[in-house]
Amino acid sequence: GIQVEQSPPDLILQEGANSTLRCNFSDSVNNLQWFHQNPWGQLINLFYIPSGTKQNGRLSATTVATERYSLLYISSSQTTDSGVYFCAVKVRGRRALTFGSGTRLQVQP
Amino acid sequence: NAGVMQNPRHLVRRRGQEARLRCSPMKGHSHVYWYRQLPEEGLKFMVYLQKENIIDESGMPKERFSAEFPKEGPSILRIQQVVRGDSAAYFCASSPPSASTGYEQYFGPGTRLTVT
Predict the structure, then answer these.
(1) Quick check: A95 and B104 CB within 8 A?
(2) A99–B43 CB contact, under 8 Å
(3) Quick check: A45 and B107 CB within 8 A?
(4) Which residue, A56, A72, B3, B19, could crosslink A21 as a Cys pair with Cβ 3.0–4.6 Å?
(5) pLDDT digits (tens, 9 = 90+) for A30-46
(6) Which residues in chain B touch residue A45, judged by CB atoms under 8 angstroms apart?
(7) Are the CB atoms for A62 and A71 separated by under 8 Å?
(8) Residue A34 to residues A3, A62, A84, A88, B73: CA-CA distances in angstroms?
(9) Quick check: A98 contacting B, CB < 8 Å?
(10) Using CB atoms, which residue from B45, B55, B110 is nearest to A97?
(11) Is A25 in the B-facing interface, judged by CB distances under 8 Å?
C-alpha cells in the first residue's frame, strides 16, 4: 500500500515563529487532507488539497502531486497551534485515507 | 449544521465485555468511515460503509469486530469480547455522496475505549 512519511516528527517553536511541515507519499493520490489534532484529541480539518496552493489565515498548504509531496506552512505560531499535524492521502479507486505518523508541534510562550 | 457526532465519548469495559460505538454522520452525508488510533500513533482505516452496505472492510480485524450502517439510525462499530489491546480512540468520519469535493472526510470527536 501507499506509504506516507511526515517530517519532522517533533518540533518545538517559540511563539511568533514560522514553520514548515512536510508530507511525502509513495504513489499517486487524488485526495490529500491536512488535519490538526488538538491536545484534547479532536481532529480538525485544515485543508483539502490534492494539488495547488491554499491559504487560510496564518496557515497555508501546497501540494505538488507530480513530485508526491505536500507542505503545510504555519506563520506567526501561537500556543493554540500546539498539537499533532497529520497528513492523509487517498489513492484512486479507494475511499480509505492513509495517515502519516504526524508531526508533534509544541509552541512555547 | 451539526458535525459528525459520536457517542459515547468515553467508554470503559472489562475484558470479555462488548463495546458498542455509535456514529451519526453530518447531515447530507451518506458515507461513513471508521478509524482506530492506538496511543501515540496515527489513525488506521478500519471500514467504509454506505447505507446498509459494507463497501471496504480491509482494515477490520478478522475476529470480534463488526460494523453496520442501517437504513435508519447511526452507524455502529461493535467489538465483542474486548481485550486490553482494543484500548484506543475510535474515530468516525463522513463524506458527501458527490465526487465534486473529492469525498473530503470530516471527523467526529472520537470515542476513547479503555479496557480494564
Answers:
(1) no
(2) yes
(3) yes
(4) A72
(5) 899 999 999 889 999 99
(6) 104, 106-107
(7) yes
(8) 16, 11, 11, 6, 30
(9) yes
(10) B45
(11) no
pLDDT greater at residue B68 or residue B39: B68
Read off the C-alpha cell for A69: 509531496
pLDDT single digits (tens) A71-96: 999 999 999 999 999 999 999 888 89
Asked whether the beta carbons of residue B31 and residue A30 sit closer than 8 angstroms, the reply is: no
Task: Determine the Cα–Cα distance for residues A78 and B37; give it in Å rounded to an integer.
Answer: 26
pLDDT confidence bin for B1, thresholds 50/70/90: low
The mean pLDDT value of chain B amounts to 93
A40 against A22, higher pLDDT: A22
Which three three-digit cell numbers place residue A14? 517559540
